[in-house]
Amino acid sequence: MVSIAKDKKVILFDGVCNLCNNFVTKVIRFDKKNTFLFAAIQSKSGQEIIAYLNIDTTKTDSIILYEPGVSYEIKSTAALKIMSNFEGLWKLTQIGWVFPELFRNYIYDFIAKNRYHWFGKKDNCMIPTPEIKAKFLD
Question: What are the structural domain ranges in the chain?
Answer without folding.
Answer: 9-123
